[in-house]
Amino acid sequence: xxxxxxxxxxxxxxxxxxxxxxxxxxxxxxxxxxxxxxxxxxxxxxxxxxxxxxxxxxxxxxxxxxxxxxxxxxxxxxxxxxxxxxxxxxxxxxxxxxxxxxxxxxxxxxxxxxxxxxxxxxxxxxxxxxxxxxxxxxxxxxxxxxxxxxxxxxxxxxxxxxxxxxxxxxxxxxxxxxxxxxxxxxxxxxxxxxxxxxxxxxxxxxxxxxxxxxxxxxxxxxxxxxxxxxxxxxxxxxxxx
Length: 241
What we know:
Radius of gyration: 19 Å
Number of helices: 9
CATH superfamily: Decaprenyl diphosphate synthase-like
Distance between the termini: 29 Å
Structural class: alpha/beta
Shape: globular
Low-confidence stretches: none
CATH class: Alpha Beta
């Protein structure tokens, strides 16, 4: 595998284009979702091999509930099936599974499957795979603000003490570093309500490749591009040398 001087500690992926991939083949949208599993597997295994510590996949947003019911039902069944089948892959590659998002709205069978894989992999020490399910960046920030406001009412914190660290510690991602690299497939160029707070200084990489066609070589192209960039965080190039 290609050697890189700089491997992101945390990569986030918006897996886009499953429906368009299926439409091109004259099939239902769920056909695209089923054929995206190989892209997920290759991306996860490649990140583990490269030494990436955290990989967050945008698997299902709160807005996705507005899709046709047949597609939503199919996605939930596919999630259950893939969790059952992929546990051996997680264990073989020393990958720990975790989730962010409001899981309470997911079908109980999905939650049970998730919790089972999370428990089974909790002692793994390699890549942490984070599935964003029923996730909304705005909802996450809103919940954090509400929790902070409640603590002010209880006298546990003063308004003047609130800073960026306070907000970060009330987010569902508080245990993880912010992503250094976001990859979005299918040519769309927006964040779609994903990790809005966390991606203040994330490098954004967009590719025309539809997610079911995304493979290791496409991940390596994203990393090659990332390694050409200079992450200044508001400073000048001269200040970094």
